[in-house]
Amino acid sequence: MTKNFFITTPIYYPSGKPHMGHAYSSILTDIIARFKRLEGYEVFFLTGTDEHGLKIQKSAEKDNKDPIDFCNEVSDVFRNLSNQLNLSNTDFIRTTEDRHKKVVEQLWGILSKNDQIYLSKYSGWYSISDEAYYAEDEIFEEDGKKKSITSGSEVEWMEEESYFFKLSSFEKKLLSFYEKNPDFVQPESRKNEVVSFIKQGLKDLSVSRTTFNWGISVPGHKKHIIYVWLDALVNYISASNYFNKDQHAPWPADIHIIGKDILRFHAVYWPAFLMAADLPLPKKIFSHGWILSGDEKMSKSKGNILNPIELINEYGTDEIRYYLAKEVVFGLDGKINKDNIEICINDLANNIGNLTQRVFALIDKYYESKMPNTSENYTQNSITIIEPKNFIKCLQNLEIHNYIKEINKYSSKINKYVNDNEPWNRKLNSDTNIKNILNTSLNSIKNIFILMHPIMPKKSEYFLNLLGLNTFSINNLKIDIPVGQVLTKPKILFKKY
Ligand code: MSP
To answer: What is the CATH number of the domain that holds 328?
Structure first.
């Protein structure tokens, strides 16, 4: 039976150009998706764009464009980014698509039928940039302007007729859910944040707006536009076609990957909406930290953006994927800069790159680029033996930085093994001995590239194809390259800076 795995990125606001923060959410999600495939899962991997709301309407107006034309253009930029980052997503949803609108309307219908929504009047602070409501104690004043304490974005006073979702009635249910499912939100520090937010008390949530029209109308009440976050969160079930019982993709999602700034929406509002509609909850939410430029979050409004496309053009997609996954502890904030990128790529070249070139050069020279055999009584040196469970554990715990550390540790051991045994030294080694060393080393390098596949898919596929391995899974860690296999020497794998 196929095992399914359903993973999502947040859907991105196409209000500006994609930046490193967006790329980061997507790359890390892709790494997990690819690792699950390596483990044999059928992976449903969803990403997309979040296209409604006042923020997008205003961005379109600024560009003198019709909102849909504006969204078509910018959504394409995000779709292209998925290709440039080499994402293996199986779907790309846009909230302006009919398949999505239909499900949002259906969900609204269920919430109404279940008596979870009522009409009243809203007055309070709203940030267009965050598309979020803030309480009086969540704002401060700076230069005569009211701002959100958490995001620093400007808020404005809003008063209008609005539909409300009965969020307050979910306080106890959510707390009891968190008690029973302590790993639902990870890392744990984020879970604690969520729980203490709920404990402070939940107010009913305004879920419609009447002062603009770019969005999905409340069924039967056209002047009300459904709150953009209610609209956006539903993407996770609209893409899986959940209400079509005959042909829906797997729901619940196994994991939503999100940034810490959108935790409240995913860890409080989303579970409450689903509970209110009697729908299953996602299994896990992982909240990563911010990519910082200097000490600040990278964002358009701060003007400190490192453009992912420029970095990819300069250093390569695989290299940037590797850098972000290795250097930023998954779950914490991480500073990035070009000097560090170069140091990181040089390490890659000196360790894995150098090892590969050396072993290939010798196999080329001594054995006409064919996989040498080992002698009958040869037993593998213990330091070269691989323990797949160590790697699987890191990924299962979502310690992606540690997963890479483990690979590099293994690669360093193989480097040391080659150095210590000097297969180039004919005086020291018999032919049989050289064959044993090269056979073991190349099988180990094969393992390194299999494990690296989720992180650096292009380089890894390129290399494994040269060994005659066109399809592979985690099981190939224990399967040696056949003796006599014709091997093709790789071009330089990693450029040095
Ligand atoms: N549209 C909403 C998400 C709706 S999901 C149902 C949204 N979009 S966003 O484009 O503003 O951000 C998308 C993701 O990018 C979020 O996870 C956010 O945390 C991430 N990043 C944006 N800037 C970031 C950094 N500087 N660093 C890391 N990730 C950050 O929010």
So the answer is: 3.40.50.620
Residue 249 reports pLDDT greater than 90: no
Split at pLDDT 50, 70, 90, the class of 338 is confident
Within this chain, do residues 344 and 329 fall inside the same structural domain, yes or no?
Answer: no
Give nearest CA residue, ligand 1 atom 7. 12
Determine the Cα–Cα distance for residues 77 and 65; give it in Å rounded to an integer: 16
Range of the domain at 194: 4-335
Instruction: Spell 111-145 as b/e; 16+ CB within 10 A means b.
Output: beeeebbeeeebebbbbbbbbbbbeeebbeeeeee
CATH number of the domain to which 402 belongs? 1.10.730.10
Select from 313, 335, 357 the last residue of a domain: 335
Residue that finishes a domain, picked among 301, 335, 369: 335
Using the mean position of ligand 1's atoms as its centre, give its distance from the Cα of residue 12 in Å: 6
Q: How many domains does the chain have?
A: 2
Nearest Cα to 434, choosing from 356, 353, 442?
442
Report the pLDDT value the prediction gives residue 376, as an integer from 0 to 100.
86
**pTM exceeds 0.85, yes or no:** yes
Task: Determine whether the shortest distance from the Cβ of 298 to ligand 1 is under 6 A.
Answer: yes
| Cα separations in angstroms, 151 against 39, 115, 229, 321, 459 | 38, 33, 17, 27, 38
CA of 19 to the centre of ligand 1 (A): 10
Q: Does 441 lie in the same domain as 317?
A: no
* pLDDT above 80: residue 305: no
**Mean pLDDT for the chain?**
93
Query: Are 270 and 366 in a shared domain?
Result: no
